[in-house]
# Entry
Amino acid sequence: MKSAATAALLAIGVLAAAQPAAAAPCLGDTTAASVTPVRHAPRLRFGINPAGFAGALGPPVAETPEDPAETLRALRELRPSGDRPFILRLNRLFWSDHQAGIRRFARAARGYARHGYRVEVQVRYHPTDSQEGHIGRWVRYVRMVTRRLGSIRGVTALQITNEVNFLPIAPDASDSAFAGAKDALIRGVEAAHRVARHLGFGRLRIGFNWAYRSDPSSENKFWSYLAAHGGSRFIRAVDWVGLDAYPGTVFPPVEPTPSGYADGMVNAMSVLRECFMPVAGLGPGVPIKVEENGWPTGPARDESTQVTALREMVRAVNRFRGNYGISDYRWFDLCDHNTSSLNFQHHYGLLRDDYSRKPAFDVYRRLVDLLAG
# Structure
C-alpha cells in the first residue's frame, strides 16, 4: 500500500462517520487475547519484497540504485536453513510498461530462480490514459504476462491488480484510482487462471490482494461487486487472496501499546476471512497470504519501534495462522527506497539504502528460521 496514512485515515474517518445507522457491521476479532489459537496448523512460508521502491503520496523522490550483489547477500542471510522455501515478491509490473516491463521482470525472476528462490509477481493494472478502461486489451496483456512469466519455473504466483478496494487517492500505490479496476481484477484473474491451466503451469497460483482497510461502505461495494460480476468462474479462478496490512502506519495510524500491533493483524486477518471473502463466495479452502506487512522508520519513527512492530505482527500471524487459513507471510520490504527522504513512506526497509542493517533485520532473520515451514 505505502500510501500516506494521514490522508487515507482522514478520508476513511469522514466516510465512516457518514454511514447511516443500519445493521451492525461485521467487525471480526478485535484483539489477540480474545482468540484461541488453532493447534497444529501448517507452518508459514516466509518471504520478502526484495526491491526498495514503494508507491507513495507526496513529491517524487529519486530511488537509490540497487546493488544486486548486496541484495543477494542480504537475502541469503534471511533465508531459512535447510530446504525450506523463501519467496520473493516482485512488485510494480505495470501494464503501462508493456513489453519492456515484462522483459525486465522476466530477467529478474530468472535471476532469483537461478539462486533457488521462488518468485511471485505483482501484475498491476496501472494503465496509460489510452489504455484506461479497455478491459479486453488488459485481458490480452494478462494472458501474455502469464505465458511469459509462467514459463519460468521459479515463478509460482501472480497477483493480478493491486489494492483495488482502497480509496482512490494514490494511483502510484493502488489501482483503485483507475476506471475499470474492479473489472480488471475479475477478468484478469480469470484470464491468468485459464492460461496457466491450459499451458500446464501446475505450480502457478493466481490471486489478488486486499488492503486493510477502506471505509465500510466502500468495502461492501467492492466485495459485492466481485460477487455480482465474478460468479462461479471467478471463484474457481482464485487460488489465494493476499492481505496488505500496516497497523501503526496506515490503518490504524497509531498503535499505543505493543499488543496493538498483534491486535491489528488479528483484526485484519479476521475481517478478510470472516467478513469479506464469504461475500464473494471465497470459502475456507482459499488460503490467505500476508503479501505486505511492514512498519517504516524515518522522521519521528524510530528503529526500535520497528523491531517491536515486526516482532508482534509476525508472531501474531504465526500464532493465529490456523484460525484464519494463513499460508504465507511477506515483510515489506528489504531496503529503504531513499533513507535521506523526509517522507516516512520511503523507509520500510530492514536495511537502509546503503545496505547497512537496521536492528529489525536480525530479528526477522531469527523469526524466519524459527517459524518457517
About this structure: The chain has a mean pLDDT of 91.
